[in-house]
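Appendix B, record 7
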Amino acid sequence: MRNKKNILEHLINNELLGKNSKAESDLLSTFSSSFKSDHEWNEENLGNKQELADSMLKNIKSRIKPEKSGKKIQLLRYSISAAASILLLAAIALFFNSRIKNPELISFRTLHQMDSILLQDGSKIYLSPNTEIQYNTNYNKKLRAIDLLSGNAFFKVAKNPNKPFIVYSGEVVTKVLGTSFNVSLLHENCKVTVYTGKVNVTSPYESINILPLQELSFNNITNTLTKNIFEKSQLSEWFLKDLELNNTSIEHIIHTLEYKYGVEFRNISDEVKRIRATINIDRQDSIQEIINQINYITNLKFEANGKIISIKH
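Structure tokens (predicted):
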């Protein structure tokens, strides 16, 4: 909740200063317009509407520092923008209040196995083990919004230009119209990987569009987005029930198994990661069976201790 609020406040501040990109401005516009038709002001919960508006306007003005040239037109532009943003700020207050009080939230959590969800618009979500998502019962009414609370998920989104599909994951907002992509959230560090289509990723400080075979990583400590580009063969199709990995690097196999089984490989050297192997993963195979298969083919000695896998020396 706090993370989404930080993102919205950041976008609003930049909108007032004219610093938002078109994608960021569109995201604010979508949020604002969807709110007008879905919510009414509740004075008992939120307080007097006019008093809150006056307080917000005072706060906005205190942040505005017009140039020393004293041009009245510039100050007027800021004042108009500030006044216009009051409704959006009020909507944000209502939004977070309603999210706290709204009992109509659907939560879905996986434990030791991957699973999938087919949404009413035809979009499908594949969840890794130990993953939790949440969405409102009014999904697909105005927006298609999903909260990835933890874990890893692959989204195959049904195309609808009139209803953007939005994923909230920690400090990161991912927005698409129809595409397929993967989002991983671990300790507030988020990674978005695009398989098909175009995706917009917004952090508290920047907004970037990425295409297939591109990946953005958000670092929660530095608050930066880093883009990586990779080959098609490096895309992990961990969400498929049956997999055949032909002449694949151990690094790619590890990546697939971590998503598919919710395990963590530790202390694997670069030399081992470069080794190539061919393995088959059937839907009924346990992680131990896959480890045995890798060890037999490569003569390595992977060993599982609960969810942690390492090489025995």
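Remarks on this record: The chain has three domains: 2-101, 105-232, 236-311. Residues 2-101 form one domain.
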